[in-house]
Design brief:
By secondary structure, this protein is mainly alpha-helical. Helices cover about 65% and strands about 5% of the residues. The chain has a single domain, classed as Winged helix-like DNA-binding domain superfamily/Winged helix DNA-binding domain (Arc Repressor Mutant, subunit A). The model has no long low-confidence stretch (mean pLDDT about 90). This is DNA-binding transcriptional regulator, MarR family.
Amino acid sequence: MKNSDAMSLTAALLSATGSLVQDIHTGVVAHGYDDLRPTHGFVFTRLAPDGATVTDIAAHLGFTRQAASQIVDELERKGYVERRPHPDDARARLILLTDRGWRCARVAEAAAAEAVRPWVEMVGEQRLLALRDELVELAPAGPIRPSW
């Protein structure tokens, strides 16, 4: 692949990613969750379905433990998460989504479906699912992180 082709592929993937993040966030805000930032959605993806520790969240986001703790504090103040004793580690606290957090997560899931609807209309569901499968093969296993 020529350098110019690699660069245009990179630009297209990053543009699509940025667009999806913004469209999902816009959908979440439109449903009344206007006290969140896009970064919070990346935290939610780590918390669902079974919760996580602050250390897990920090690793997931590529943040320091202190920065992750500040985000968790903020989400707790806003009623999206709660801290509970960790069932396997007496020194750790398990961060879990509250009912409000789960409602927001469901809204984000619906917003994601709405965000890709134009893509389905443009290229068809089968091609889009094939692209998804190929990207799953290409993408490194691991956390979904903000790209900024």
